[in-house]
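Researcher: I'd like a structural prediction for the single chain below. Treat it as a standalone chain; there are no partners to consider.
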Amino acid sequence: MEKRVYEVWKGSNKFILGGRLIFGPDARSLLVTLLLITVPVIIFCVFVASHLQHAFSPYNAGYAILVVAIVFTIYVLILLFLTSIRDPGIIPRNSHPPEEEFRYDSSVSAEVGGRQTPSLQFPRTKEVMVNGIYVRVKYCDTCMLYHPPRCSHCSICNNCVERFDHHCPWVGQCIGLRNYRYFFMFVSSATLICIYVFSMSALYIKVLMDDHHGTVWKAMQESPPSVILMGYCFILLWFVGGLTGFHLYLIATNQTTYENFRYRADNRINVYSRGWLSNFLQVFCTKIKPSKNNFQAFVQEEVPRPTLPSTQEAEVEDLGGDPRSKVEDDLEIGEDLLKISQRRNIKEIDEDICSRGSNGPHHTTLEVDSVLGSDHRSTIRSDTRHSSWGRRSGSWEIAPDVLANSTVTESRSYITPKEARQ
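Model: Treating it as a single chain, here is the predicted structure.
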């Protein structure tokens, strides 16, 4: 049975209603934000607004206080959900690196078949022009794509997001190109409702003072919920109010939170600013781009792509012969030389070389010049030659002249096919 995109999604997002709504991995924090908004408003409507209904007798103006509180709260909650449930601007990840970006670098080359061959390189960054100025963009290993300008990879959602601002835990979602407008409207509306509840609670304290001809202290004792709401809104106002002011500055200068915190110390030129008026119009008056992801669509199988020839295959083609036997012989040679490099005793080296003559008795005389010197090198020479280079199976022996010409270290030993044939 075919699966849909949201069912095989590689990011950390959570989907509901068949992929119609997308949340971040910390979507549960949305419930905490919901309680922080609704509970104070319910307390306000029950203990403050209901008593102010008849405080303004002409035209029953007191009812407007209750209606405004309810409507304003619904508006804030709608903005909260619009911020949290929509695609923030996720860029679909690739299934393979962009092949058009591969290039051959002659400065970094490998020896293949006795000649130097350019090595295949992949640039980690590249430059694109924005408003006449070159901007460096990075390659994302997770999504296998180059970031468009102002894009960044969110480590929490595990997605590349266009015009990435930040990941907000209070809404449980990344803030990017497609939901930044709703995020700012939510924060600024939350600031206004805090001011409204604080003001109406203070007004109710004033009404109690006038009705009972008492002091502020007596009025506060008469309505403790009003005092609690005033304290709560005063504290919350420092957070949402400060956040609103900060984002007003970011919008006026056409920056994101990520850019402000990362590039502020570098004193980089802001290539995206068009003037404060155009910047505000860009955020609030432009059409929101459609999502680049269709989470409800069925997954389409990709056609297998031809793989690039490896360096080892190119070497076999140059030298000729069976690739499989060539690889097996190379591996055996490398393992044997590595074993020799790890010996710590002359006797062990002697036994190891003699054990190579398992096909029949061979009288071999070894003359060891130096074993494991200060540079950990061993040079081994032999009076007779017995080699089975080129054999595809069975046991073989290393020719003495090969051992005499090879430098063996503890880390790694290199041998070329050209030396093997001598």
